[in-house]
Design goal:
The protein is built from 5 helices and 2 strands, in the order H-H-H-E-E-H-H. It is mainly alpha-helical. The chain has a single domain, classed as Up-down Bundle (Four Helix Bundle (Hemerythrin (Met), subunit A)), CATH 1.20.120. Helix 1 packs antiparallel against helix 2, helix 2 runs parallel beside helix 3 and helix 2 runs parallel beside helix 5.
Length: 136
Amino acid sequence: MPDVDAGFTELEQAFKSHSRKAEKGNTPSHFLLLFYAVECGLKSEILQRRNVSRVGQMGKELETHDLYSLVEMLKFPVSLANPSKSSFRLRKSKSSRPIEHAHQAWRYGVAMNKEDEDKVVNWLKEVQQKIREIII
């Protein structure tokens, strides 16, 4: 069971709240909120589709920050499940990281390759829009 066992309603509200705040700027802090908004929205939709009320009822399956795998679970359009959008490079080391590490880069102030960051943010916005079409 997760340390904080959220329900689908709480996750949906978090999606909406984080989304509103994320749209107010264009900084790594705003991107971090966007990442968490999308994570909450995806998990909320997974719970609803599986007719489960709380994250803890899913076992370890939802204990992830891998948004790409959550998108795949929901069988979103192929354009959103594109593997080329599932990683980014760090600016200094030029090393590649999976998308589930994007929140860490933003949280800890580790700069991404600008082109990759733009790609990740645009992908997050596409997924966010798809979630909005479903839950709003």
